[in-house]
UniProtKB/TrEMBL annotation:
CDD domains: MFS_SLC46_TetA_like. Belongs to the major facilitator superfamily. Phosphate:H(+) symporter (TC 2.A.1.9) family. It is found in: Membrane. This is Major facilitator superfamily (MFS) profile domain-containing protein. Its main location: membrane. Keywords: Membrane, Transmembrane, Transmembrane helix, Transport. One of its GO terms (molecular function) is solute:potassium antiporter activity.
Length: 428
């Protein structure tokens, strides 16, 4: 009876997609599995091309013959890795405005489409500058990561909003592991599988095309599926809300409320502090992801492990499985017991000695090296995703639901700027 009363009190506009989603949320019961999967695969589609190049970027830049010395390869590789994030930093605000004006769904479809096109072209890169450009453009034209968090809040009922936001960060973390694993296993197939791939074949002449093409195929499937995603933006015509004579007053009032909202977000210290922590750890996570692969594949004489891209793929695959198990089984329990703030604090403190120990891992060899490296990689990723998920939860608790879109826009702008520095730090 209470639900029926709420339905009667709530005003729904017939041609508004946001109202349709709200109506469905009010009558929906049970765990929204379909919505969770949708959010998960869309975020995964974005993060895979970001992270998949890390295991082979060292070899790719080496093949371009742009570095005069072997120790300069990592320097040039850093700029290829950061090109995507630089593009995101320049366009995050623009895509946030477009999403608020025209809807979340067009931005999602456009973003997955850019992955299909430019990630494939990146696999055909035959020189350094082509690689830079084909990494920059998908970052500049892709506004999904900012939009998807607002979309998750609008798509899920209030009791499942935390779960929806957790799905975005979990998918991001898993993508940072699956992507390098794919890149490590599938790059240079003519060298790894000479009986299946000849040096004169397409994948032999473009040794880094195969992982890019596999991700592009996945992105193409996600793009087709995204056509059926519901739009959550409320589109109410002004004349449905106000009379024509009151339109100027309504516009002025809306502008005042907008300014007030932006100012209140900037003055909201719980929000801004959680965004700053989130961005700092995103920088650290992005830098680590690239540094790990470059360090592992560098020769022993330069302090590396002399691993192949295949070896790096094995380590990251093990990490991905353990991360998925932890985040689905143990992380929700940890948050219930300690709360998101304490979980983020504990994870941050534990990350310091763990990262400090990495140079000493290079001194090991054999089975001890394999065991220690896998354990360190698992712990690092578990701690990192715990921090990021905890801070995302804090961001959305710090604001009302109607302010979450703007708050996520601020977070994505700062995160893109911080993450643009990360790969460059890794290369340098």
């Amino acid at each position: 009876m209470a639900i029926n009363d709420e339905l009667l009190e709530k005003v729904y506009h017939e041609n508004c997609p946001g109202c349709k989603v709200d109506r469905n949320k009010r009558i929906q019961t049970g765990l929204p599995i379909k919505e969770l999967v949708s959010i998960w695969v869309v975020v995964l589609c974005v993060v895979l091309p970001i992270s998949s190049l890390y295991p082979f970027i060292y070899f790719m830049v080496r093949d371009f013959n742009i570095a005069e010395k072997e120790e300069d390869i990592s320097y040039y590789a850093g700029f290829v890795g950061s090109a995507y994030m630089i593009g995101r930093a320049l366009s995050s605000v623009l895509w946030g405005v477009v999403a608020d004006r025209y809807g979340r769904k067009p931005i999602i479809i456009l973003g997955t489409s850019t992955v299909v096109i430019f990630n494939t072209i990146f696999g055909f890169s035959f020189n350094y500058w082509m690689a830079i450009v084909t990494r920059f453009l998908p970052g500049f034209l892709n506004g999904i990561l900012g939009t998807i968090k607002a979309y998750a809040c609008e798509l899920f009922p209030e009791e499942y909003q935390a779960l929806g936001l957790s799905a975005t960060s979990t998918s991001w973390g898993i993508g940072l592991v699956i992507g390098p694993a794919l890149g490590g296993f599938l790059a240079q197939p003519a060298e790894k599988f000479p009986s299946l791939v000849s040096p004169d074949s397409l994948f032999g002449r473009f040794p880094y095309l195969l992982p890019c093409l596999c991700i592009s195929i996945f992105a193409f499937v996600v793009t087709i599926v995204a056509i059926w995603l519901p739009e959550t933006l409320h589109i109410h015509k002004l004349n449905e809300l106000e009379s024509a004579s009151d339109a100027p007053v309504a516009k002025e009032k809306a502008n005042e409320e907008k300014d007030s909202t932006l100012l209140s977000l900037i003055k909201n210290w719980p929000l801004m502090s959680s965004i700053i922590v989130y961005c700092v750890f995103s920088l650290y996570d992005t830098a680590y992801t690239e540094i790990f692969s470059l360090w592992a594949e560098s020769p022993k004489s330069l302090g590396g492990l002399n691993y192949t891209s295949d070896d790096v793929g094995v380590v990251l695959s093990v990490t991905g499985v353990c991360l998925l198990l932890f985040h689905t089984a143990f992380f929700p329990i940890a948050v219930r017991i300690f709360g998101p703030v304490m979980v983020a604090r504990i994870s941050g403190v534990l990350s310091i000695p763990l990262l400090t120990a990495y140079p000493y891992i290079a001194l090991l060899s054999g089975l001890m090296l394999t065991f220690t490296l896998n354990l360190a990689s698992i712990l690092k990723n578990v701690l990192s995703i715990s921090i990021i998920t905890g801070t995302v939860m804090l961001q959305n608790k710090a604001v009302d639901q109607h302010q979450r879109g703007a708050a996520n826009g601020i977070a994505m702008t700062l995160q893109a700027t911080f993450n643009a520095i990360g790969p460059s730090c890794g290369g340098a």
